[in-house]
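Below is how a single chain appears once it has passed through the pipeline. First comes the sequence as given, then the structure the pipeline wrote out for it. We keep one example in the README because the format questions we get most often are answered faster by looking than by reading.
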Amino acid sequence: MRWRFTKDTGYKVTFGYITKAKRRLLKLDKSHHNDAFVIAGGEYQTRCEALNLLQIRRNKRSMAQFYDAKYLDIRDKKPKSGTELFSGRSKRNKNFNSENLRAYRGHKLLKGQRRVKKLRYRYQPHDEVEFEGAVFEVVGMQNQGTGVKLKNYPGIKNKVVKISAVKSLKKRGGICA
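Resulting structure:
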């Protein structure tokens, strides 16, 4: 199909190794934008800035979250999750992928749990809010919707503030620039 298409339309065919060699010759990073520039025959022309789009799901597909059980590691006496201390085997019909670490599980410190969110909260991840005169991105909600977790708060990686202390600026969902 490809050969018929190129023959009928008169377009040239190129391959990845050719594009890579030209891109390295022009000292460009690997990106879709730079590859398209090189394939189109670009060399030193002025270029416009690339438009990067982000797709944010409007609704989460799963409202359930799983939190793994915690065990005491008998080697160093530190708590570790069940995933960290497992056999490496994920399917019954496959061999072990790594060392079986189940032997190092001590007593169970915390039981694993599955939490199901019952409603959609006012603020979703990637929404923009104003707090203390500055604009922040929302990481998520906490304490059953009473707190908002803000991304990159000065001095703290993520800060949780009351929902009444923030003002909504921009809801983000779908395709965002």
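The radius of gyration is 25 Å.

See the next section for the split statistics.
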